[in-house]
Design goal:
The chain has about 120 residues and is an alpha+beta fold. Helices cover about 20% and strands about 35% of the residues. The protein contains two helices and seven strands. It has a seven-stranded antiparallel β-sheet with strand order 6-5-4-1-3-2-7. It is globular. The two termini are about 15 Å apart.
Length: about 120
């Protein structure tokens, strides 16, 4: 049985995104900076939490997961995209059974190693 990975299963009030933690970088420090580069915050309700779940790609990179929860998810998605893009942080999300990264890479779910979900 495959794990219940955040980001594959749909829920109307929450959405999961992933961000790359480069070798040698602190995951906790990077998490704290994910929304720092937003010029004007759009998200005014809800929040974001760290899932304690991460994926390892076939080439050995680790993508950690966060989940936005709110009645309206669009503002959180836009704030996350604006801030991570400004900081050069590689992000990813699932489209069906494929993990699609912001720099254009694609991985099938079956090729990922799922840790601590």
């Amino acid at each position: 049985m495959e794990p219940r990975l955040p980001g594959i299963w749909y829920a109307s009030d929450r959405q999961t995104a992933f961000y790359l933690v480069p070798d040698g970088a602190s995951q906790k420090a990077l998490f704290r900076t994910l929304f720092r580069a937003v010029e004007t915050r759009r998200a005014t309700e809800g929040g974001v939490v760290e899932n304690g779940c991460y994926l390892t790609t076939p080439d050995g990179e680790n993508f950690h997961s966060i989940t936005f929860h709110a009645k309206r998810l669009g503002p959180w998605r836009r704030d996350f995209a604006e801030s991570t893009q400004a900081q050069g942080i590689v992000t990813a999300r699932f489209r069906g059974r494929r993990l699609i990264t912001s720099d254009g890479r694609r991985y099938w779910f079956r090729d990922l190693v799922v840790e601590r979900c």
